[in-house]
Amino acid sequence: MKKSYQSLEDNSTNNMKQVIYRNLTSKILYLGFILLLTFSTSLTAQEGDPVNGKALYRTNCASCHKLDSRMTGPALRNVETRLAEEEGLDREWINAWIKNSAGLIRSGDPYAVKIYAEYNQTAMTAFPQLSNQDISDILAYTAEPKPEPVVAEVPTGVQGGGGDGLSSDIMLAALALLFALLAGALVLVNRTLKRFADEKGIEVPVKEKGTPIWKAFVQNQFLVLVTVIFFLLASAYFVYGFFMQVGIDQGYEPVQPIHYSHRIHAGENGIDCKYCHSSARVSKHSGIPSLNVCMNCHKSIAQVGDETQAEGISEYGVDYNAQIQKLYKAVGWDATTQQYTGETSPVKWIRIHNLPDFAYFNHSQHVSVAGVECQTCHGPVEEMEVMYQYAPLTMGWCINCHRETNINVKDNEYYTKIHEELSKKYGVEQLTAAQMGGLECGKCHY
Amino acid sequence: MSSNKKYWKSVEELNENSSIVETLQQNEFVEEIPTDEFLGDKDTLESSSTSRRDFLKYVGFSTAAASLAACEGPVIKSIPYVVQPTEIIPGVANYYATTIANGFDFASVLVKTREGRPIKIENNTDAPTNGVANARVNASVLGLYDSLRVKSPMKSGANISWDTFMSETTTKLKGLNGKAIVLLTSTMPSPSTNKLISDFKSKYGNVSHVTYDAVSESATLDAYQAKYGKRGMANYDFSKAKTIVSIGADFLGNWQGGGFDSGYSKTRIPTNGNMSRHIQFESNMSLTGANADKRVPLKPSEQRLALAKLYSYISGVALPGVLPAGLDEAVKAAAKELSRAGSNGVVVSGIQDVNAQTTVLEINEQLQSAAFDPKTTIFTRQGSDKAVMQLIADMKAGKVGAIITNGVNPLYSLPNPVDFAEGLAKTDLSIAFSMKQDETSTKFEYIAATPHDLESWGDFEFKSGHYSMMQPTIRPLFDTKQFQEVLMAWNETSGSYRDFLKSYWTSNILNGTSFNKAVQDGVYMSSSTSSTGNSEQTIVGGMVDDVSNSFGLGNSDETTVEETILESNVLTGGTAARALADSAKSEGMELSLYTKIGMGDGQQANNPWLQEFPDPITRTTWDNYITVSKSDADAMDLVNVNVANGGLNGSYVNVTVNGVTIENVPVIIQPGQAKGSVGIALGYGRSSQALKEEMKTGVNAYPLYQNFSATQNVSISKVAGMHEFACVQLHNTLMGRGDIIKETSLEIFNTKDKNVWNKVPEVSLNHIETPVTSPDVDLWEGFDRSVGHHFNLSIDLNACTGCGACVIACHAENNVPVVGKTEMRRSRDMHWLRIDRYYSSEESFEGDNEKKENISGLGSSLSEFGEMENPADNPQVAFQPVMCQHCNHAPCETVCPVAATAHSRQGQNHMAYNRCVGTRYCANNCPYKVRRFNWFLYNKNDEFDYYMNDDLGRMVLNPDVTVRSRGVMEKCSMCIQKTQKTILDAKREGRLVEDGEFQTACSAACGNGAMVFGDINNKDSKIAELKENDRMYHLLESVGTKPNVIYQTKVRNTSKA
Description:
The complex is a heterodimer of chains A (446) and B (1057). Chain A is mainly alpha-helical and 446 residues long. Helices cover 57% and strands 1% of the residues of chain A. Chain A contains 20 helices and three strands. In chain A, α2 packs across α7 and α13 crosses α15. Chain A is flat and about 120 Å long. Chain A starts with a helix and ends in an 8-residue tail after the last helix. Chain B has 1057 residues and is an alpha/beta fold. Chain B folds into four domains: 238 residues, Rossmann fold; 146 residues, Dimethylsulfoxide Reductase, domain 2, CATH 3.40.228.10; 141 residues, Barwin-like endoglucanases, CATH 2.40.40.20; 310 residues, Alpha-Beta Plaits, CATH 3.30.70.20. Helices cover 32% and strands 20% of the residues of chain B. A seven-stranded mixed β-sheet of chain B has the order 6-5-17-16-15-7-8, sandwiched between helices. Chain B has a six-stranded mixed barrel with strand order 21-27-23-26-25-28. The interface between A and B is large, with 54 and 48 residues.
């Protein structure tokens, strides 16, 4: 403790001394700069191209730097101006730093050393491949003014939906009006005709009042019987249907403690399912990824892109950045110091796919051995903003797949002999899972 | 035409004027229905605030609420790790090698953990010593999840913190003003712990360490120490013996720490026409006696003389004393056989007498027995009776300042707990290191909560040079500290015990090999002599010396102690045998105290698996009892009867030894019990708050264990009342049905054709006798199982000793519930695997078969079948493990109305619990009676308050096996979860399954090689070979069920045939 304090002090005194010295040199440099400006225009060619800079920034810098907030490295917005104004460091220093920061630190450059110490003594990766022009492009990009924050648009869904509703309502109203007019017209015509008839003295034959239809119905016992049977059968059908869906949670889409978007991760970013659900390869459980797996990426992704954020708010009403903050809170990550605090609060996810205790299912059998795509059972996960149960997970559904799916025998010595013998016995080219014994009770119930 | 017959229900009805008939006709209910009792009480009725309307409202509301609640599925939460340990994959089991060492059982084991929870104990096949877990070791995993464990250190019944504990105890230990500190521990053959104890001694000065075994082997240790200079026991490798003579040694049970049975079983399987011959002289019917080729029942006092005579006949030294003629002949014959066997013979004895044990060592040396290995010392018993008694005397004299116990329960297991309690009151500080608030720790000032073996670090030297490592398999569940950790804190040694262990091992034992490797293997073999030297130090530093040196006693006391030891040890050779012969005095009834296979010394009494474990011999659960021979029982009018509900009842007796009486001991009439002798098992009758109410079973026999002598003169008197046993096997004999357990003698086996001694049963087809295996007589269409795997399980009746490790392993693997004593008595036991025990009614089973064959005519069959129900006085015994036989033509399948049970291509008979509606037709149609019905919900049910009723206990459940619900049938699945896992592993790795990979829980637990499991379609496998073995037969083959469990005919090495 004491020692580091000592060294800090040393540092500051050093700095002080050097500042004086540097002021002097910088004056000379400034002079030189002005001279250069006046005598040559070639330097203006060094003006960066922010578009190219953006591309370079994305590939080289973005994994450790953000424009407006601190990450592994410091925030870079207007870094050149800030360095020049606050530390009096020029472009040359920046070039030297980017191309070989470690060298600069070794050379004892005070600001380099200071930065190095401030960021946990992690040296910045050297980028010798970047030319001065590249660097000035990047700097030009960082010098661009911060765009106005995207104003969270009031979700337009309701409004738009309302608009649609209105137009159809108008159509309906118009139709209703039309029908009313037609009906009115008919009544009018009828009345007029009757009047004519009366005037002409034509007797309109009065229809004899028969038994009302419901009475006739009651009297016809056969019809009653048929109707009763029909209603009984119909209700039995619905009751059966109701009971058969008890306990089947197809489409179950619970609200999770953290709004995790499979659409973004598996869809847009194309992360392999088994990167996070790695135990699906070897275990019966696919496994809910532990939070340290999330942090493999989210250590450096504290915020989503602005467009994604805007999309989240407008389309799904979700603040993605707040969700990432929830992750940080759960895993105990302090984004400002870039360190784990050790205070964790494990996430209580709500389990979506619940098999009963008496049904045994093994992911690795299906994923590793059979090579079944995750989507076969879990549906288009890469399109799901919120995960839901895609398949009914009923026994009939399992069995059906076992009947239809051929076993994957390719390059699997285990199957070679047994497949050869069994396929000969059944007289088929390719055995289904059912023919391998995949319908036996004890394969799943024990 | 109508009949004139008059039907009548009683004679009274014929009497027309009977008033009784009149009244009965008028009055349907003879006894009045007590409506008045209920409704007549006006006050209660009126004061009741619940009107009929309200009642209906409540009923309606609760029904509606319940049905509404049922509509919504429960929300199930899943909580993943924050940081997942790399070695844990949810759903994949991890195995760790560790050690179970609780002072009574010592075993190197593998622990199966799932998601960080130990769920099962398996054998460590890499371990050359004690790598086979017995029933108690298998069950000890449940002790980890005992809800009655001490959860933090305690002071006078209140929880305190470890900081308080450490600061208070350290101050008190330092302020004893020179009074002695005594460490009273169970046997801990741990090199590092002994180092810590010697550090503790040098730090605190007046410290002594007394080792106490609840069930003492002190005499054996003394004899060995006198002869070989080390405190330990000689090693026996029975696989090198051809002729084994045992005098009262239950070496297949708990004799000298156990672990001898796998060597024994190796010699019991006839190979090249040879197998070992085993002669047993004993009083109680023990597991060992049940396995013997020749068993001679004799009283404990006669055992002494028999051993002396055996010595005499072998060495030719004449000794006084006369044995009854028959016995003498038997001893002579045994001596002759031993002399003939020479170095292939071995003698063992369980007589707790220094002279007896010295004599045994002498005989074995004289024989130059190959099985006898005195150079390898067994260290798993270290207790010294004298040291313990001296300690109690010193405590009572107020010489002991502080007593610190670890792993012992003297106030339960001492014969004189009152003396100990009296002495305890005079100590200034008492600390009990214990997992439980047991009989002892509750009386101590401090309880230092200790972790379970599965949560601890440790090292053990089972035999010289044979080390076993203990490592934690789970983070401690409670706020506990190991004895060693606390010792280190008292010693002011910094670091953790693990670090200490590592540095101690690196510098003293490992000789440059890797510590991590030793921990990973769980065992370490040292060939260098340094370790032996080290252990010698351990032993000498052990007990006897300490007692005399460190109590601060006067010189005179010291000499007396040493003198007594010398006195007992000085006898050698013939002198010991002579003294032994002199000591053989018989007075009236003699008692042999023993320990049961299930309960051991009683420290695991709160383990429901062990309570419900049927004793291999009596097949009784949840009890101990006094075993009495039939003739003694008749003389004292003691009875065992089967009552109408099928339960076994027995008389009660009072048992008195030297004025100490235990009241109401239930009686079991034990075939084979020597006349004039009785036996009682130790380890029952626990009574503290360390046990649930249901577990407080049996009577405590330790008060009879006076002077640590297992044999006592006893007097017995019958008292009124009948005890209700929970016995799982009520029929004791085979009634001459030789096709259930096929057996033959070695001579017939060697000389005669297979058809003579293992004939396939025949049935008559068109009046031609046809073997039942012929397809012509089969009602069934065969099912092709030639492709893929076809599992078979072979059980060798020769190698099976009936030890029951498989029963507990099956319990643990398959989530078999515990049902409790009342349900057991109703024959509602749930064990998927049972080990049937049969007695012969004649001298031998062969005699039974002959007798049955010769029965002819009604008169003869009426009397003789009745006789055959009774076992002989000294019967032959046979064990037969029976589980679902997985019939290819299964009778259970055809009667199931919902097709819940079905055969499979792999030979397993499947049982789909979710499909079962509980008609129980299958159980009725099963010829083997192996199906078990869930009469109740045995989990999360307060009526069955065993491990499945608390959250902690349920942690032991195997997540791969369904926990069955009420109303479904269940049975052995041939561990389909294990076979499926093996297949899946092979599929994932894209390879074939190798022989030996397939295992069931029982076959993996069987260290005796009696159970072999495998795929008979793999023609190179061991099981395929066993299937073709001449000894192979199927149980009840004549029924034609074509089972996939096969048995190997039992061959007895009887000299007779």
